[in-house]
Amino acid sequence: QVQLVESGGGLVQNGGSLRLSCAASGRSFSTYTVGWFRQGPGKEREFVSTISSSDSNPAYSDSVKGRFSTSRDNAKNTAYLQMNSLKPEDTAVYYCAARLRVSFPTNPTSYIYWGQGTQVTVSS
Fold first, then answer.
1. CB-based contacts of 42: which residues, under 8 Å, 6+ apart?
2. pLDDT at 101
3. pLDDT tens figures, 26-69
C-alpha cells in the first residue's frame, strides 16, 4: 500500500514557475513508476509526465515538453514536477500516481495509487 500526498500548487502569473511535490508513504516507493496527470475544468484527466523507478527515461506530453521536468528522490520517498513558463492553459488540478509495474504509463487507468491533487492556477 502506498499513500501519496501532493503539495506545491498555487496561483502564479503567466510565465511563472511552480514545483510540485509528491510525498509517498509506505514500502518500496523506489520500485514504483510515478505518473503526473492533470484535470482542467470540464476536461478529462490527461497525462503530463512519468518517471520510472530508476529515474531513467522520463516522458512528457507534447503540451509540456521543454517546460516541465520530473524527478524523484527515492531516499526521501518524493517525486517532483518542476513547471516553468506556465501558461493559463496549464490551469488544472495536478495529481501524482504510482504503481509497481506500468504497461502504459501515459494511461491513467494503469495506476493504482493516487494522491488527492493540488490546484495550479495560472493567471493571464
1. none
2. 84
3. 778 889 999 999 999 999 999 999 999 887 789 999 999 999 99
**Cell digits for 66?**
521543454
The side-by-side arrangement of strands in the sheet containing 78-83 is 2-7, 18-26, 78-83, 68-73
- For residue 89, report the phi and psi dihedrals to the nearest 5 degrees: -70, -5
Question: Which residues in 42-67 are b (16+ Cβ under 10 Å) and which e?
Answer: eeebebbbbbbbeeeebebbeebeee
Tell me how far apart the alpha carbons of residues 47 and 39 are, in angstroms, rounded to a whole number.
9
The rounded distance, in Å, linking the Cα atoms of 117 and 120 is: 10
* SS3 readout for 7-67: ECCEEEECCCCEEEEEEEEECCHHHCEEEEEEECCCCCCEEEEEECCCCCCCEECCCCCCC
First to last CA, the chain: 40
